Amino acid sequence: MKHLKFCQLAPMNIHFVQFPLEYFLDTVAALELERIELWGGGPEVCIDTLSFFRVQQIKKMVAQRKLKIACFTPETCFYPINLASPDQETRSRSLRYCLRGVDIAAELEAPLMQVVSGKGYFDEPNDQAWDRARESLSLLAERAQQCGVQLTLEPLSPYESNLVNSLQAAKTMLAQIGSPCLGINVDTVPVDLTHTPLQDYFDQLGAVINHFHFCDRTEQAGWVPCGDGQMPLKELLEIMDRNGYGGSLGLEICGVAYYKDPAAALQRAVGRLRMYMEG
């Protein structure tokens, strides 16, 4: 490919949750990759309890393997984290958690931190939930600008959120916040679920796209290892290449089916993508 390079792949440790972080880092280094996406979840990178000492330890472990953190991704998709929650206590806690995430991203020298909009109750009009999400994301963007970190907002699927869950909703939220620190993370699973051509994201958002979650899916499950599903991966990579995408491709593999042997799942995905990108 002309623009897209193998070194842009950035595996995420989310399905290595039953193994020490060192095991994940060693697996990535052995695959001759240069980047990781660091998932901020327990027990290894738990935002609520992560000390300054542990952050410095993580930085050292990453550097020792000649890797770089392309994006820091705190776990924000599940309760009790919801930036748009109608419950004030939940929303305040969620905001404190995400603000701490920005601080950690800066300490880790990660250029990006992923955020999501949260969600309102699905049986109510979402105007007020949208306003709460916008207010929370605006505050996070202010902190990110102070810390020298870029945020990457991921549009979720309509099953995960009733707020930022489409290309148009992402455009609207970006326009309303108007922060130079806020970009878009395109996750290929929601793109496929909503039948949105990937080229539309490049046509309508262009340089605002600052990260990707490059994933596969089946009819039964999403976020499976690339090559294990039904999505046209090679075609998607070619679209990214034609548009000169220069950011990272976070490899997000989710589900307990991959917990027992996470390295094998990652090796399969990386091997398939390497074949498409270099073959």
Ends apart, CA distance between termini: 9 Å
Strand content: 15-25%
If you average the pLDDT, what whole number results? Answer: 96
Helix content: 40-55%
- Low-pLDDT segments: none
Largest sheet: 6 strands, parallel
Total strands: the figure is: 10
| Widest β-sheet, arrangement of strands | 1-10-7-6-5-4
How many structurally independent domains?
1
The CATH topology, please?
TIM Barrel
Silhouette:
globular
Which architecture does the CATH hierarchy give at level 2?
A: Alpha-Beta Barrel
H-E order = EHEHEHEHEHEHHEEEHEH
Q: Can you tell me the CATH superfamily?
A: Divalent-metal-dependent TIM barrel enzymes
Please give a structural write-up.
This protein has a 6-stranded parallel beta sheet. Strands 2-3 form a two-stranded parallel ribbon. 42% of the residues lie in helices and 15% in strands. The model has no long low-confidence stretch (mean pLDDT 96). It has helices at residues 21-30, 52-64, 88-108, 127-147, 167-177, 188-193, 198-205, 233-242, 262-278, and strands spanning 9-11, 35-40, 68-74, 112-115, 150-153, 182-187, 209-213, 216-217, 222-224, 249-251. It has 279 residues and is α/β, with parallel strands linked by helices. The protein has a single domain (6-278), classed as TIM Barrel (Alpha-Beta Barrel), CATH 3.20.20.
List keywords for this structure.
279 residues, alpha/beta, TIM Barrel, 9 helices, 10 strands, 42% helix, globular
Summarize the structure.
The chain is α/β, with parallel strands linked by helices and 279 residues long. It contains nine helices and ten strands.
